[in-house]
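Before surveying the methods themselves, it helps to consider a single example record, giving the amino acid sequence and backbone structure tokens:
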Amino acid sequence: MTQRSDCPISTLLDFVGDKWSLLIVRDLMFFGKSSFSELQNSDERMATNILSSRLEKLEQDDLIQKQTDPNDRRKKIYKLTEQGKSLLPILLEMIIWSSKHAQETNLPTQLLERASTDRDGLIADLLARLED
């Protein structure tokens, strides 16, 4: 990956600086999606060419890995790498920020409550769920 500068925020944006990449990470992380068709059927209805290019970039940047589905050898499944999973606290903070500044969104109330009372436990539980 080519970095635009040595700024840490700019570097993160070089990895996931477009909305589609973050939404793919969101779907893999929070909604248990793993196949191309599941990712394509998200509420945002990403075009197939955009989804393909973002999956390829996320894989090249070592945020996701592509595997053959053990149940259907013709199908590919996508999983977050350890580097991808390490984005969890950032996405959690984005959810919390949205809860304060955009109340009309579909915010997971239980997740928000737990984030304020047991943030570390919530992160541990979410990461454990990704291991299954």
